[in-house]
Design goal:
homodimer, 334 residues, Phosphoribosyl-aminoimidazole Synthetase, Chain A, domain 2, 25% strand
């Protein structure tokens, strides 16, 4: 490891408290916070009498490579993917708890950049949401486990199971852009099996956008509560690929979803329909609405029909895309 | 790894969904759950208009060794240490979110045993609390990141910062027993530097109890809300050793805590005052009360006095115990 100035110590040479204080100094107060970090637990106001909670973890190896993701990128992505699950219930994110496991030789500046990424992601995508707690442990590999909390503001949570035949299927967000970015990383920024830093300047503007969305996704969080207000019957975050996630929504609702190929083509990044159906990590919102009067930001991509054999059809034919299982796909790509 | 029957597959050969379903089939519903696991997020009732939240992680290596801890032990401990942080605010635990990172060759039965340990810990120590969400990733080492949520039931959260000169300092729970158990593991159940399974039958009953409390702590969770009701001015979970944690409470409250040596000796496991002051992981509740009329389960161990130079005294003299920093202590013991 390259030498670093003394004011950028290794995490292993600091106490947990010192590192947590350095992180928390970089985070903004959350608007729902009654008691912030620093005690045994935080206390959040839940004026609507309910709290929405979800957890998701990024692990070095299966979920990211340090050659490709900066500390800022990782903080941003860990926040974004968790905030997206809250929005997908129709709720507004209110707080994050962040558990970090980091190698002892990690520089403090890297952890500070992660804190910056988390803060900026919240500020841009979920204003008022911030880190209220967490912990730090030393580990042989880097891992970021986040729990996100949210408030429904009196809305009824929009689950995956409420879609009904006749509903319109709509999407907010992008399709295939994050997978395109992943394809660039694996295709262009490896030396043999070893990831090397991405030379962003070597990419054209569309490729740069794909790379950026892979590293720092921008899920349309504000549209989750709007969809709930507009009467969405079912909604979910598209994290593992449209075909796979739609099949989950269809199974939970006991319906079949019939996608329009032309509608997907119009939304698909680079016009790649296969990647639009199979590519993961876009974190768009897939929702069903009882009327074709869709809220702004949602585009019609299909129709809910009575359950037939297959959960998901494309212009009436079964979809064979298996989607994105980060578990297997990425590991096999190592 | 020993061969196992086909009905005990490796985690790496299963989908995340299949493993999560197997885990969730073993957990009980939480009494505050409006929407349980299986959607993008869970929804919990918070009738008092606030939610208490805390996160803590156990990492293989710094926090546990698989030769010493069973899956059941790990699940129990991961739950217990998190539930304790909620109780230390004066709240009742309502839900856990559990993020697991596990090696691909982990057996499903090990994960199921972890789920059993979490469920039984909740059932015995925090009835009504259960797992409402979480996620699973493949990792090169085993890690359990838990977020605990709780409800204050209208109580004001008891922080670390409210202790006042003249208050009585009291403890609920044990002192030094978990450290005694850790000492047994490091002293008797290693071959060189390599941990070997603990032969419990080779230990006397007191030693067995120390081992059990190290592996499966039993924090006095019900006494947290009772202490709040009794007017506790400050409270915290003693996880890193009494001396270190008391210094944190004293610093936060800008007071000094003067412990009674004879009171500590009476509570110290095996009569070991040094271990009682320095040993971690007992997860007792340290609290300050404005009156000597203490709630049942709390024992007087000292007095709050105006801030002098040192945060913590023992019979009037500064305490030199540095306490337990799992970060440093355990790593150096590798």
């Amino acid at each position: 490891m390259a030498s670093a100035p003394n004011d950028d110590p290794h995490i292993g040479d600091l106490s947990e408290g010192a590192v947590l204080r350095a992180i928390l100094a970089r985070t903004a107060p959350a608007s729902h916070t009654l008691l912030g970090p620093g005690d045994d637990a935080a206390v959040l106001a839940t004026p609507s009498g309910a709290v929405v909670a979800s957890a998701d973890t990024l692990v070095e190896g299966p979920d990211f490579r340090l050659a490709w993701s900066s500390g800022y990128d990782l903080g941003w992505k860990a926040a974004a993917v968790n905030l997206s699950d809250i929005a997908a219930m129709g709720a507004v994110p209110t707080a994050l708890l962040v558990s970090l496991a980091v190698p002892a030789d990690t520089r403090l500046s890297f952890i500070e950049a992660m804190a910056d990424g988390i803060r900026e992601c919240c500020a841009q995508l979920a204003p008022g949401c911030s880190v209220v707690g967490g912990d730090l442990t030393v580990s042989e590999l880097l891992l970021i486990a986040v729990t996100a909390l949210g408030d429904l503001g009196g809305r009824v949570a929009v689950t995956r199971s409420g879609a009904r035949a006749g509903d319109i299927v709509a999407l907010a967000g992008e399709l295939g852009v994050a997978a395109a970015g992943l394809g660039l990383l694996f295709g262009r920024f490896r030396r043999g099996a070893v990831p090397v830093p991405a030379d962003r300047a070597s990419l054209d503007p569309l490729q740069q956008r794909a790379l950026d969305r892979q590293l720092r996704p921008e899920p349309p969080l504000r549209l989750g509560p709007l969809a709930a207000d507009a009467g969405a019957t079912a909604m979910m975050d598209v994290s593992d690929g449209l075909a796979l996630d739609a099949s989950r929504l269809a199974d939970a609702s006991d319906v079949t979803i019939d996608f329009s190929g032309s509608a997907l083509d119009a939304l698909a990044f680079g016009g790649d329909r296969g990647r639009a159906l199979g590519g993961g990590e876009d974190h768009g919102l897939l929702a069903a609405f009882p009327s074709s009067d869709l809220p702004a930001g949602f585009t019609r991509i299909g129709t809910v029909i009575p359950r037939s054999g297959a959960p998901v059809l494309l212009d009436g034919d079964p979809v064979t895309e298996t989607g994105w299982d980060p578990y297997r796909d990425w590991d096999h790509a190592r």
